[in-house]
């Protein structure tokens, strides 16, 4: 067992979780009859894989994205006369971590990309000059300026691209080197970039490639007994990161499946009117907390016989991985020193209250699934909770979107004095 930050957080989270909830969730997994227990586990695994397959994005989307990345790079070369080898397009966010899901109503989703430009090869010094030059080259597509990126909405696509101008951290012009906000951590330091933060008009450290490598490396650590045995035999190793990673993920990759399921559950919580859209937990928080939890379990030597057991632990422990430092909620970016993904929680407490409401609903729904008396009932609940009622593209709230929207029941409403606005 390794005594690490995340293993200590996991130990603390284990102490904080509700013992009664823990007992209830595991009741179906501790039957005296191994045969019956195995049947339940395998049935659950099939159901979870069914949800995972339903919410994944078609592979052709990533072929389109690769083509669009190339179009953008070519446009930058054409409009700005920059050398071909000065530009590198790097997928980031859900695409790079292989956790992208489609929305319950099949609305457009974002695919994030970073444009890493070697500034030593072009004539740019000031961060805003660099940012504006990128925007001018993307004018063909009426790119919309955002805080740190340009939003490019290709006509006829099922997605839009949020395109972030950046440069390798060691390529920032010397005249601006003292203005960089945050510093990279030692983890994946060689992948660190500087992006333009338009509100401050300064460079800010970012590390999307390092972050996706972190998720990939932790996901590859075997916590399932049969994968541990396989790693001993076959020298099990982490997957490599590809330009646009294939999104096929099986339940044995429990970390990524957990991320996908929780993101989908969050989206369904919005659709069912338990959570207001503008207050829903952002994906980076879900990904970070789950990956921290997974790393902590791996560091403390946890071993599981089945993915469902691991999945339940991740769901139960994840809310308790949030740190409280001083008087602030804290979810640290593992690749950028001092960056707090929960920063807005400290400015708007409704965001944290909504996170608590959502995680409470998540545990209640998981309890309903685990308490189902038979496979048919359980699958019906799973389909409703995760919005897998129909295999067709949803057109109404009850066609492919799961449970029809409704007003939240009292257990999910925050206290009146601090409730959702």
Keywords:
421 residues; alpha+beta; Beta Polymerase, domain 2; seven-stranded mixed sheet; two-stranded antiparallel ribbon; 14 helices; 11 strands; 12% strand; disordered C terminus
Q: Count of helical segments?
A: 14
SSE succession: HHHHEHEHEEEEEEHHHHHEEEHHH
Q: How many domains, as an integer? A: 2
Residue stretches low in confidence (pLDDT < 50, at least 5 long) are 31-35, 235-247, 391-421
Described by the principal axes of the CA atoms, the overall outline is globular
Q: Gap between N and C termini, in Å? A: 45 Å
Percent helix: 40-55%
Largest sheet: 7 strands, mixed
Beta-strand residue fraction: 5-15%
The radius of gyration computed from the alpha-carbon positions, rounded to a whole number of angstroms, is: 22 Å
What's the average pLDDT? 82
Class of secondary structure makeup = alpha+beta
> How many β-strand stretches?
11
Describe the structure.
- This protein is α+β, with helices and mostly antiparallel strands and 421 residues long.
- It has 2 domains: 5-56 and 249-418, no CATH class; 60-208, Beta Polymerase, domain 2 (2-Layer Sandwich).
- Helices cover 44% and strands 12% of the residues.
- It has helices spanning 5-16, 19-25, 34-55, 59-80, 94-97, 127-137, 208-219, 225-234, 254-271, 283-299, 307-317, 343-347, 349-370, 375-386; strands at residues 87-92, 109-117, 144-145, 150-152, 159-168, 183-184, 193-197, 202-206, 323-325, 328-330, 336-337.
- Strands 1, 2, 3, 4, 5, 7 and 8 form a 7-stranded mixed sheet that branches.
- β9 (323-325) and β10 form a beta hairpin.
- The protein starts with a helix and ends in a 35-residue tail after the last helix.
């Amino acid at each position: 067992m390794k005594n690490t930050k995340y293993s200590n957080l996991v130990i603390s989270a284990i102490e904080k979780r509700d013992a009664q909830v823990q007992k209830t969730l595991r009741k179906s997994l501790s039957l005296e009859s191994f045969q019956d227990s195995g049947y339940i586990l395998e049935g659950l695994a099939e159901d979870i894989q069914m949800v995972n397959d339903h919410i994944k994005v078609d592979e052709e989307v990533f072929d389109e994205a690769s083509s669009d990345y190339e179009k953008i790079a070519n446009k930058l070369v054409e409009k700005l006369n920059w050398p071909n080898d000065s530009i590198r397009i790097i997928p980031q966010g859900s695409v790079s971590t292989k956790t992208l899901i489609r929305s319950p109503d099949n609305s457009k989703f974002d695919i994030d990309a970073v444009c890493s430009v070697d500034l030593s090869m072009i004539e740019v010094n000031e961060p805003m000059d660099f940012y504006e030059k990128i925007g001018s080259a993307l004018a063909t597509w009426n790119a919309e300026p955002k805080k740190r990126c340009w939003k490019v909405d290709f006509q006829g696509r099922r997605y839009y691209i949020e395109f972030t101008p950046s440069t390798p951290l060691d390529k920032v012009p010397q005249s601006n080197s003292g203005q960089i906000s945050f510093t990279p951590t030692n983890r994946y330091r060689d992948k660190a970039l500087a992006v333009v933060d338009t509100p401050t008009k300064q460079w800010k450290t970012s590390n999307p490639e390092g972050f996706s490598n972190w998720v990939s490396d932790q996901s590859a650590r075997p916590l399932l007994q049969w994968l541990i045995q396989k790693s001993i035999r076959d020298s099990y190793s982490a997957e490599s990161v590809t330009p646009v990673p294939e999104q096929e993920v099986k339940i044995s990759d429990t970390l990524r499946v957990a991320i996908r399921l929780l993101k989908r559950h969050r989206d369904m919580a919005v659709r069912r009117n338990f959570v207001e859209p503008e207050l829903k937990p952002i994906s980076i928080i879900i990904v970070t907390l789950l990956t921290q939890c997974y790393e902590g379990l791996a560091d403390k030597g946890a071993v599981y016989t089945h993915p469902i057991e691991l999945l339940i632990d991740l769901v139960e422990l994840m809310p308790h991985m949030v740190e409280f430092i001083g008087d602030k909620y804290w979810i640290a970016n593992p690749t950028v020193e001092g960056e707090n993904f929960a920063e807005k929680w400290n400015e708007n407490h409704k965001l944290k209250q909504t996170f608590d409401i959502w995680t409470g609903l998540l545990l209640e729904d998981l309890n309903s699934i685990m308490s189902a008396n038979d496979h048919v009932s359980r699958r019906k609940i799973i389909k409703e909770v995760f919005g897998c009622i129909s295999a067709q593209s949803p057109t109404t709230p009850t066609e492919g979107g799961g449970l029809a929207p409704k007003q939240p029941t009292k257990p999910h409403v925050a206290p009146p004095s601090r409730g959702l606005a």
